[in-house]
Amino acid sequence: MIENIMNVITNNNLQCILALNNLTSVYDPEIGLNVVDLGLIYKIEFFDEEKIIKVDMTLTTQFCPMGESIVGDVTKMMNETFKDYSVQVNLVFEPPWNHKRISEEGKEFLNS
After folding, report:
1. Which of 62, 102, 78 is nearest to 25 (CA)?
2. Buried b (16+ CB within 10 A) or exposed e, 28-52
3. How many whole angstroms separate alpha carbon 48 and alpha carbon 53?
4. Handedness of CA 7, 11, 14, 17 (dihedral sign)
5. Does domain 3-7+10-100 have CATH number 3.30.300.130?
6. For site-directed labelling of 56, which of 17, 73, 79, 105 has its Cα 20 to 30 A away?
């Protein structure tokens, strides 16, 4: 069963919460907000038998100059969090990111 936690689709709530907690340390350097509060993480699926994690994420724009760096940081953090798994981070642009995906904490930060 796939559930939705903090606007993230997942098939394992407990592992997804751990992943999202650790991904809050990955920032979009241009905005200064982490990828979770920005709403850039769309889906995290765990395939325990194969020891694979698939992450679908986006960027605020397809032309984000820091995109490669952000994806690399997400991959690194997921690898550090789930050492026994192979991590595949897929960059997607459907649905397109919009400001409605930003968390309440993120909105407070951006308005300060």
Report:
1. 78
2. beebebbbbbbbbbbbbbbeeeeee
3. 8
4. negative
5. yes
6. 105
pLDDT of residue 6: 73
Q: What is the pTM of this model?
A: 0.93
Which is nearest to 67 in space by CA: 97, 96, 106, 28?
28
Compute the distance between CA of residue 75 and CA of residue 50 in angstroms, rounded to an integer: 18
List the chain domain ranges.
Answer: 3-7+10-100
Which CA distances in Å does 52 have to 5, 46, 47, 49, 55? 20, 6, 5, 8, 10
* Residue type at 16 in one-letter notation: C
Quick check: 39 and 97 in contact, CB under 8 A?
yes
Q: What confidence tens digit (pLDDT) does each residue in 25-66 have?
A: 999 999 999 999 999 999 999 999 999 999 999 999 999 999
Per-residue tokens: 38: 């920005």
